[in-house]
Here is the input.
Amino acid sequence: MQTQRGIPVSPGVAVARAFVFDAGDRPIPRRQVPSAETPAQIQRLETALGAAAEEVEAIRDRTRARLGDELARIFDFHLGMLRDPALRDRVRGPVESENVTAEYAVHATFRALAESFEAHEEPFFRERASDLDDLRRRVLKHLVDQPRSTLAALDRPGIVVAHDLTPSQTAALDRRHVKALAIDAGGKTSHTAILAHALGIPAVVGLGDLAERVTTGETIIIDGDRGEAIVAPDAATLLEYRGAARRSKEQARSLLESRQLPAETRDGATIEILGNIEFPSEIDEALAMGAMGVGLYRTEYLFLASHHAPTEQEQYDAYADAIRRLDGKPLTIRTIDLGADKMPEGVPGLFRDERNPFLGCRSIRLCLQHLDLFKTQLRAVLRASTLGPVRVMFPLISNMMELRQSRMVLQDVMEDLDDAGVAFDHDLQVGMMIEVPSAALQAEAFAKEVDFFSIGTNDLIQYTVAVDRGNERIASLYSGAHPAVVRLVREVVRAADRAGVSVSLCGEMAGDREFTMLLLGLGLRSLSVTPPAIPSVKQVVRSVSLAQCQRLARRAGAVDSPREAHTLLREEVDRVVPRHSAGRTAGR
Ligand code: PEP
Ligand code: MG
Here is the structure.
């Protein structure tokens, strides 16, 4: 049994078999079996070698028919290796003498052979080293439970273990089968983490090298509350965590009981709690969790989940679907925020390799350089605006010109629609995200030119403290409790209040109960939250008074260390609203 620690990003506990994604080239762990099991391992080995040889034979025959003898001969070499008695003896050796598993014997033997071929003085052998790697993967495919490289192969319940997953891969996960995610890379607000949280899948990121230590089919435990992955748990641990998984479900159910109660503090202030969504289908759950509308619709997921750039009509249909589901409740549509880690497959030619993609041509910058893309979206948003209360906001605004240009493009599209006699809401509210320090520092000037602000702390933190939000190696430096971040949020709220502009906060902080008191204390009265986190935020709101929150915000703002400030916030919320303990053994 091995326990690996990471960063908890989506709560809940899952116990299931691992599905190691894209681990084709990772080492297979060296595992020994009791000697009584050795004959079974030999049998597995023979079967796998036989199946791989049959596959190669079929490929050779097809190649010969299509491409001729010469190319088919490559596979004669593969077949010769797989059927070579000396090689078969060599692979069997470690199983018989060291009692290792068949997969480890294949992995180690083929690896060693490939290395000796690579170092060979004869070019003939050097050129064939990669063929041996190919053969190794082919034989292993018959020994480990599943083909290892495609998520589509996950056709039964399992825990996806991966070195990394892109947001589009995460979006495509089949929720029926994925019980949890365990990712080696990433931080608390990486988009994969946000999506896992939104999908309600327990997840731990920043696990280092877990994907190298786990084999598909092994049982693992993911504890999304504590940020732990336990590989090959013993019977006592399994029992304990199965109980914990049950209790964590009961706890979530008990929080749900109060989800439709008003989000009102003890001294009577009403807090607006909205939902963050990536897809309109999430709205039903957001409303069921108690959301009063949608404060952030990340429309770029239309692109990330598709193999082509969505047409104006496809975008309109998605927005219309969202508005219908909201049934009169407000919807804030954020214009496309692509680039950096959100790279769609279906829009080739839009992106170039950049040295610093998070500081590069992403988000509103990309839209302003590709006006067709931008205008198509704005037309779809405007047409949908007749169906219900819609607002539009621009992401990553970092200087006044960008805001003015964006508004001008919107104005152009409005005029085109007017000319064409197409109806839209002429009073559509226009807002911007504050997620770059330059925008936060200039909030007063921006407040004169927009109807509302939405503070995106996920990016605001990374740009303020210069810490990549997806880099697990420096994740401990990424903190919403950093005094500089607290100060920026405070100043933005003040600037908005002075100008009479509404302000909400939609970064992941809004859904973290440890920050709820701070945010209320800083003056926020609207939070846009990942839907599964709404009940726990509402519970805090209903248990505190504004005066209490303001005192805490003053104390937190006066602490100069982010860690101390965070501890203060955590201790205070735990004191005011004690966390239900899931009852697991302390100190594990
Ligand atoms: C943010 O940066 O806080 C935000 C909400 O936007 P995203 O997470 O999509 O970058
Ligand atoms: Mg952002």
User: Anything to note?
Assistant: The two ends are 12 Å apart (CA to CA). Confidence is low (pLDDT under 50) at residues 581-588.
